[in-house]
Design a protein that fits this description.
heterodimer; A: 221 residues; alpha+beta; Helix Hairpins; minor pseudopilin epsh fold; two-stranded antiparallel ribbon; 47% helix; globular; B: 184 residues; 2 domains; three-stranded antiparallel sheet; 10 helices; superoxide dismutase activity (chain B); Superoxide dismutase [Mn], mitochondrial (chain B); Mn/Fe_SOD_BS (chain B)
Chain lengths: 221, 184
């Protein structure tokens, strides 16, 4: 899914003689109500997570990109480099959460229904079963120190499926294509599960949208 | 922020297993959190295990209920003098420290430290549960992991940081600044 679909271009006037077009990122709408993923994820968490946390990543990304554009215009390389951690953090946060909302769905819309098609075949080959994949993914999630995400990915170099953990908001880049992401930041579960994160990792599979993962897998193959 | 409310109603289960802190003499009654009260998955992970209880040892001892004399910066005359010298004023120091805390990406802690060689003060960040190392002595630390504030403040970490300034144990901080290892 291209993030450009949800960004609206704005014309930025730099001087009387030149203008440039830059895309302003916006918070994507959820295709379901905040309470629709209950009991796996509470409506309160979904509301805070989407309307506050993700919105902040969007706002901060826009702000960082604006400053970065100014630094580029001014040929200020040090300024550009100083901004890169902000672009990585907030840009990654925007990308990761956009993918996350898409790979969740209410049970009534297929959340939790097992994968099918080519992805299901690849899962069987690599993990033996979906249950075993879940075990591996939950182990990856439990092993995250601090804040981060675990992702089921396709390694484009080999074609194989893999599970990788990414720290903070680092996005999946390079040879890996993200298929399914699970947020292990405390804000993703704390209000409901407190420190019992294993319970959260177990429960979230009830609302995983395998259709989204299949579509991403198809697009990558 | 009422410390009693924070400690007894908002902290995760493993933090509540500290035995017998009274609301008025918290620093005196802190016991070392033992590994057995950590969530099972944390104990099995690759955290640097000695560092995890260490950070909390330092943290609990550098908090005090807001209505005690320990919670007033006046309890730390030498330290506050050094703070004013370095940061211009107590408020200037608070603003700078607050900015550092709010800029922390991911999980971690903010610390006021003293360089053991030069005796200079500094504000540093440690990632995840990394301890303060490298010849720096912690004076006080502030936990910025989401679990430290989320149940009470949700995503509003600015309000959490504003509130925690009211419960810093300046008496302990002064002791650490002057060379004691109070609370460690």
């Amino acid at each position: 899914m291209s993030l450009l679909r949800i960004a609206r271009p704005t014309i930025v006037r730099r001087s009387l003689l030149t203008t440039s077009i830059r895309c302003k990122h916006t918070l994507p709408s959820l295709p379901y109500d905040y309470a629709a993923l209950e009991p796996a994820i509470s409506g309160r968490i979904m509301e805070l997570h989407h309307s506050k946390h993700h919105q902040t990543y969007v706002n901060s990304l826009n702000s960082a990109e604006e400053k970065y554009a100014e630094a580029v215009s001014a040929n200020d390389v040090r300024g550009q480099i100083a901004l890169q951690p902000l672009l990585r953090f907030h840009g990654g946060g925007h990308i990761n959460h956009t993918l996350f909302w898409e790979n969740l769905a209410p049970k009534s819309s297929g959340g939790g229904e097992p994968p099918s098609g080519n992805l299901a075949g690849a899962i069987t080959v690599t993990y033996g079963s979906v249950e075993n994949l879940k075990k591996n993914m939950n182990a990856s999630l439990a092993g995250i120190q601090g804040s981060g995400w675990s992702w089921l990915v396709r390694d484009n170099a080999t074609g194989a499926l893999q599970i990788i953990a990414m720290p903070n908001q680092d996005p999946v880049v390079g040879k890996y294509v993200p298929l399914l992401g699970i947020d292990a930041w405390e804000h993703a579960y704390y209000l409901q599960y407190e420190n019992r994160k294993a319970e959260y990792f177990s429960a979230i599979w009830d609302v995983v949208n395998w259709k989204a993962a299949e579509a991403r897998y198809k697009a990558a193959t | 922020m009422q410390l009693s409310a924070l400690l007894f109603t908002q902290l995760p289960q493993y933090l509540l297993n500290l035995t017998g802190p009274s609301a008025t003499s918290l620093s005196a009654s802190i016991t070392n959190p033992s590994l057995s009260i950590l969530p099972e998955d944390m104990a099995k992970t690759k955290f640097t295990l000695p560092a995890l209880p260490y950070a909390y040892d330092v943290f609990w001892a550098n908090l005090a209920p807001a209505d005690t004399s320990q919670a007033k910066p006046e309890s730390a005359p030498k330290l506050t003098e050094a703070i004013s010298a370095k940061y211009g004023s107590y408020d200037g120091f608070k603003d700078e420290f607050t900015g550092v805390l709010l800029g922390l990406q991911g999980s971690g802690w903010g610390w006021l430290v003293k360089n053991e060689k030069t005796e200079q003060l500094d504000i540093v960040i440690t990632k995840d549960q990394d301890p303060v190392v490298g010849g720096l002595a912690p004076i006080f630390g502030i936990d910025m992991w989401e679990h430290a504030y989320y149940l009470q403040y949700f995503n509003d970490k600015a309000s959490y940081v504003n509130g925690i300034w009211n419960i810093i144990n300046w008496d302990t901080a002064e002791g650490r600044y002057l060379g004691g290892r109070g609370g460690l």
